[in-house]
TrEMBL record:
Residues 191-409 are annotated as: Phosphopantothenate--cysteine ligase. It catalyses: N-[(R)-4-phosphopantothenoyl]-L-cysteine + H(+) = (R)-4'-phosphopantetheine + CO2; (R)-4'-phosphopantothenate + L-cysteine + CTP = N-[(R)-4-phosphopantothenoyl]-L-cysteine + CMP + diphosphate + H(+). Keywords: Decarboxylase, Flavoprotein, FMN, Ligase, Lyase, Magnesium, Metal-binding, Multifunctional enzyme. InterPro entries: CoaB-like_sf (IPR035929), CoaBC (IPR005252), DNA/pantothenate-metab_flavo_C (IPR007085), Flavin_trans-like (IPR036551), Flavoprotein (IPR003382). In the N-terminal section; belongs to the HFCD (homo-oligomeric flavin containing Cys decarboxylase) superfamily. In the C-terminal section; belongs to the PPC synthetase family. Residues 1-190 are annotated as: Phosphopantothenoylcysteine decarboxylase. GO terms for molecular function: FMN binding; metal ion binding; phosphopantothenate--cysteine ligase activity; phosphopantothenoylcysteine decarboxylase activity. Residues 186-400 form the DNA/pantothenate metabolism flavoprotein C-terminal domain. Residues 5-177 form the Flavoprotein domain. This is Coenzyme A biosynthesis bifunctional protein CoaBC. It comes from Starkeya nomas. Catalyzes two sequential steps in the biosynthesis of coenzyme A. In the first step cysteine is conjugated to 4'-phosphopantothenate to form 4-phosphopantothenoylcysteine. In the second step the latter compound is decarboxylated to form 4'-phosphopantotheine. Catalyzes two steps in the biosynthesis of coenzyme A. In the first step cysteine is conjugated to 4'-phosphopantothenate to form 4-phosphopantothenoylcysteine, in the latter compound is decarboxylated to form 4'-phosphopantotheine. Pathway: Cofactor biosynthesis; coenzyme A biosynthesis; CoA from (R)-pantothenate: step 3/5; Cofactor biosynthesis; coenzyme A biosynthesis; CoA from (R)-pantothenate: step 2/5. Binds 1 FMN per subunit.
Length: 409
C-alpha cells in the first residue's frame, strides 16, 4: 500500500523527532519515497544530515533557500506528495496549522497543499490538555486532518505522565497506509486475524512447534487491508514480513496469542488461521535441560487454551463473524463440520494436509491451497489457487456478509 507512494514528512521541534528518523526508515522499507521538511526547531533535536541519509534525498529546511525554491519550491513540495505526515506535531505547529499561518517552509507547504495530512502530536500532557490545543485539534479534525496518537505514557520530563507521547513509528505507518488505501468494501470494519505456528517452550533453548509458515493467515490479513479494513494480525513466529497497512502483534506461545487476541477485541470479524499448538510443556524449565547420563527426561504436556473456541463462545464481545481453519488428513469435510459445531464458529475453511492433497510442496509451507468452505448450511469446494487468491475469495465473502457500512447520520 505504501509502495510507490510519495510521502512528505514534516518534522517539528520536539524530543520525539528522534523517532521520526526511524519513521523515515520504516516508510522507505515499505517502498515509499520519503521527502523530509524540517522546521528550525526540529534541527535542535535531529540533524538534516541524519534525515537526508535515511531518506536518500536532500532535506528541505528553509523557505528562502534560493536554490531549493528555484529547483523545487514549496508549492511543488506539497503537490508532489500523496500524503503529508507531520511528526512530531508540536502544540505550536498545530496552532499554526489550525489558523493558517505560513511563516516558514513547513507551514507554507501545509497551507499550499490539497493533500491528505496526518499529524502525530507530541507534547507535554498539560499542553495537550490545554483548552487552546483542544480547540486547535478539534478545528484541524473538522478540516479533515487525520490524527494518530498521542499515546499515554512516561514523558521525557521526569515524573510526568499522561497523553502526549508521539505514536510509535509503526503506528504512524499503519495510519498512513489506511489513509492511502482507496476505500474498499471493508472500510470501517475491524478484522482480526491469527497466523503462523506457536512456539511452546520446553526450556530456554527448545520448543514445540509445527510446520505452519503463516502464508495463508498473512495473505488474509493483507487482503483484508487492501479491502479497506483496519486489520490486527496476531502472528506467531514466522519468516514473513509484516503485511503493509496491518497492525501486527508478534507472539510466541498459544497463551500469549490468546492474550493478544483478547486485547485486540472488539472486532467485526475474526479469522483464526494460526496453527496453534494444542499442547505445551506442562512446566517449562527455567534453565537449559542437561543430558544426565542415560536418563531421558520425560516430557509432560498440558493442554493449551483453544483461542477459536474461546472467542466463539464469548457472550458479549464475540465478533459478528468468526472463521476457523481445519487441517485434516482424512474425512476432511465430516471432521471439519464437526469442528465447526464443536468450536462454535460460523465458518470453517478446511484443508487436506495429507500427502494425498496433491498440492505441490504440501499445504503447510506451500504457496497454494485447495479448500472446502464450510458454513452451517453448505459446503463449497474452492479449487486449488494461490494462498493470495484463497485469501481474496474469503475476504470477498466476509465483505458480502457485512454489506455496506451502516452510516450513522
Ligand atoms: N485453534 C485455536 N486454538 C487452539 C487450537 C486451534 O484457535 N489451541 C484454531 C485454529 O486456529 C484453527 C482451528 O482452531 O482455526 C482448528 O484447529 P485444528 O488444529 O485443525 O483443530 P484441533 O482443535 O487441533 O482439533 P483436532 O485435534 O481434532 O484436529
Amino acid at each position: 500500500m505504501l509502495a510507490q507512494k510519495r510521502i512528505l514528512l514534516i518534522i517539528g521541534g520536539g524530543i520525539a523527532a528522534y523517532k521520526s528518523l526511524d519513521l523515515i526508515r520504516r516508510l522507505s522499507e515499505r517502498g515509499a519515497a520519503v521527502r523530509v521538511v524540517m522546521t528550525e526547531a526540529a534541527q535542535h533535536f535531529v540533524t538534516p544530515l541524519a534525515a537526508g541519509a535515511l531518506s536518500h534525498d536532500r532535506v528541505f529546511t528553509d523557505l528562502f533557500d534560493r536554490e531549493a525554491e528555484h529547483d523545487i519550491g514549496h508549492i511543488r513540495l506539497s503537490r508532489e506528495a500523496d500524503l503529508i505526515i507531520v511528526a512530531p506535531a508540536t502544540a505550536d505547529l498545530l496552532a499554526k496549522m489550525a489558523h493558517g499561518f505560513a511563516d516558514d517552509l513547513a507551514t507554507c507547504v501545509l497551507l499550499a497543499s490539497d493533500k491528505k495530512v496526518l499529524v502525530a502530536p507530541a507534547m507535554n500532557p498539560q499542553m495537550w490538555a490545554h483548552a487552546a490545543t483542544r480547540r486547535n485539534a478539534a478545528r484541524l479534525a473538522a478540516d479533515g486532518v487525520a490524527f494518530v496518537g498521542p499515546n499515554a505514557g512516561a514523558m521525557a520530563e521526569r515524573g510526568e505522565n499522561g497523553p502526549g507521547r508521539m505514536a510509535e513509528p509503526l503506528e504512524i505507518v499503519a495510519a498512513a497506509a489506511r489513509l492511502l488505501v482507496p476505500s474498499g468494501p471493508l472500510t470501517g470494519r475491524h478484522i482480526l486475524v491469527t497466523s503462523g505456528p506457536t512456539h511452546e517452550p520446553i526450556d530456554p533453548v527448545r520448543y514445540i512447534a509445527n510446520r505452519s509458515s503463516g502464508k495463508q493467515g498473512h495473505a488474509i490479513a493483507a487482503a483484508a487491508a487492501r479491502a479497506g479494513a483496519q486489520v490486527t494480525l496476531v502472528s506467531g513466529p514466522v519468516n514473513l514480513p509484516d503485511p503493509i497497512g496491518v497492525e501486527v502483534r508478534h507472539v510466541e506461545s498459544a497463551r500469549d496469542m490468546l492474550a493478544a487476541v483478547e486485547a485486540a477485541l472488539p472486532a467485526d470479524a475474526a479469522v483464526f488461521a494460526a496453527a496453534v499448538a494444542d499442547w505445551r510443556a506442562a512446566s517449562a524449565a527455567g534453565e537449559k535441560m542437561k543430558k544426565d547420563g542415560n536418563a531421558i527426561p520425560p516430557l509432560a504436556l498440558a493442554e493449551n487454551p483453544d483461542i477459536l473456541a474461546t472467542v466463539s463462545h464469548l457472550s458479549n464481545r464475540r465478533p459478528r463473524l468468526v472463521v476457523g481453519f481445519a487441517a485434516e488428513t482424512e474425512n476432511v469435510i465430516a471432521y471439519a463440520q464437526a469442528k465447526r459445531a464443536r468450536k462454535g464458529c460460523d465458518w470453517i475453511v478446511a484443508n487436506d494436509v495429507s500427502q494425498r492433497s496433491g498440492i505441490p510442496g504440501g499445504v503447510m509451507g506451500g504457496d497454494s491451497n485447495a479448500v472446502h468452505f464450510i458454513t452451517a448450511e453448505a459446503v463449497e469446494h474452492w479449487p486449488e489457487a494461490s494462498k493470495t487468491e484463497v485469501a481474496e475469495r474469503l475476504v470477498a465473502r466476509i465483505a458480502a456478509t457485512f454489506g455496506p457500512l451502516e452510516t450513522v447520520s
